[in-house]
Protein: GTPase Obg
Organism: Deinococcus navajonensis
Amino acid sequence: MAFRDVLNIEVAAGNGGDGSMSFHRAKYMEKGGPDGGHGGAGGSIILRAIEGVESLERLVGRRKFKAPNGAYGEGRLRQGSDGEDIYIDVPVGTTAFDEDSGKVIADLVRVGQEKVIAKGGLGGRGNSTFTSSTRQAPRFAELGTPGQKRRVRLELRLIADVGLVGYPNAGKSSLLAALSRANPAIADYPFTTLSPILGVVDRVDLHGNPLDERFTLADIPGIIEGASEGKGLGLEFLRHISRTRLLIYVLDVTRDPVEELRQLQAELRAYDPTLLDNVALIALNKVELVEDDLAIMVEDELANFGLPVLRVSAKEGTGLAELRESIFQMLPDRELWAQNRALEVEPEEVVAEPLTVVFREDAPARGVGIVVTGKPERVWEVHGGGFEERIVRFSRYMEDAAEYLGNVFKRQGLYNALKRAGAREGDTVEIGSFRFEYFDDEEERGG
């Protein structure tokens, strides 16, 4: 199966079911009371991180996900069933971005972690909810709200404890194979590693017996100059390095390791400066190809970077035990590291837009209305405050719901806001595509 670490999908949560407008009907009961049930909630789209998946490839072929709608409410107070949630299983380390805003909406770093990326709509309330001492037989119900729709970009950032960083042909694959149980394809030419390869490294005692400690090691495609700008395999490998707790700079002693390390760090700095804050060490590889004096001299030069330097030979096994033990000793605590490196996720709740009232002189009539008398000459547009979202939920029963909505607007301060802005009796108030006549009742005047 091919490795895929970026995938664009479209998700649509289910709509909420409408509430029922119903009255009880029974033998010998000509006029029963309202008994409309509530609509069910729409299903949500949920990302779930699971084990055993190392690529987004399993999702290829299905780019659109739609959750079921909530069922309508029914008479006799029967509530509509909720739409079933849809789970999208992704590898641990998957980050989800909203394509339109660019914001992070999910960052899954633990097995079993879940995140709603498209929330289902709310079910509408049945007419049984709206009875009062003065409203015995409400002939309106509440409509369900639409489910959230999103275009989402999924990015897989491998959750490996240790990442091997180096230029092509530096010996990273050989080092991974020598340290772990992985068996990467190894060849003597650049860009051998086209996909990240993971290996598991166990800690052993002096006799070679495994201890109850291990870490995962990632061999990531080699860097080329300009990788931070997306050249070559640049962004693909840099994305995965961002998840590792410890970096190992793998340098070929037969080339110019000092200059290569400068270039490697420059690429990391250009992509994400915080990567240079990671715990790191240097594995000076292929020491079997040079004299000991030259290897020691290069080691001394590299020490000026302030990182531990270990001379190793992946081919002959030289220094691998020391390298393995150094990694175990230097690895930061997983939980503390995760807290420090967690991406900022967009909050679930969106703050409501503040209420504003705007006067528009001699506006042309448009839309449908609750109450409109005569040709409107003074129109007040209402924005924010959640009023448009509320009024839309009664669009099918606007005339019957007028009194109820008027009381809601009054309680929530809309009429006071209009009065302070200069509205007069008979002016037209416009909320979205709906219009009604402003009135200043006795209680308002008394206030």
In short: Residues 51 and 206 are 32 Å apart (CA to CA). The longest helix spans residues 257-271. The chain has three domains: 1-156, 162-341, 356-446.
